[in-house]
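Q: Predict the bound structure with adenosine-5'-triphosphate.
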Amino acid sequence: DKTEALLDLQNLVKRYGGLTATDRLNLTINNGEIHAIIGPNGAGKTTLIHQISGSIAPNEGTIVFGGRDITSLSMHERVAQGLARSYQITNIFKSYSVLDNLALAVQARTGSSMRFWKQAIAERAIFDEAHVIGKRVGLAKRIKTIAGSLAHGEQRQLEVGLALATRPKMLLLDEPMAGMGPEESARLIPLIESLRSEIAVLLIEHDMDAVFQMADRISVLVAGRIIAAGTPDEIRNNIEVKKAYLGDE
Ligand code: ATP
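A: Predicted complex:
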């Protein structure tokens, strides 16, 4: 259904010298869906996410987001359009509390629109929202904790919170489970799932169990091309995918 499409990649090409890392790629992500991209090392997953977030430019093709051609917009302009990439929006201030980090991120979004509010009212609104986001990402008990002393998994939760502070329509997550133990993953997975239908998530992840658990749809990228796309069940049973990728896991 075309009306549901939030992100639409059309004939995207990215070359590094003689190597074509993204090869006439077409992909549609719908509003509110959790969409995972899987593929072997070097398939072009990171290159693709960079082009969507705007940190690198494609050689050819068009990126449409929310019905608007964003191909030539800067990263910051894309964030303002509702496209957030967790760790690139704001880096965590390690010597500030979780709450202060979230408040700074909320203020970065609302700053100019609150300029004429009374200082105390604006501050209250910002910290109220920071509290809500902290709770949402499972950090209510750690809200006063200095961010630098959070466990690795909790820092990832905070990064998601910082991205949520931009009020995104879509969140790009590049290997969110990397370096996490099973307990930390077990906390992050329901957090990502809780975004479903409200915020679209485009996820690159090597943890296949997590991918097949969370994703509404999975696209399989091999040598810069999507060779298959479908529900987790469809991908699991796809012979081409087994041959090209899952077989050698
Ligand atoms: P991985 O899972 O190992 O991170 P990936 O699927 O994310 O891999 P990319 O990192 O996007 O793959 O790389 C795709 C191809 O492009 C690889 O062959 C890689 O060597 C090449 N490549 C990536 N970045 C550059 C660059 N800056 N200059 C030259 N070649 C690059």
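A: The first helix runs from residue 45 to 53.
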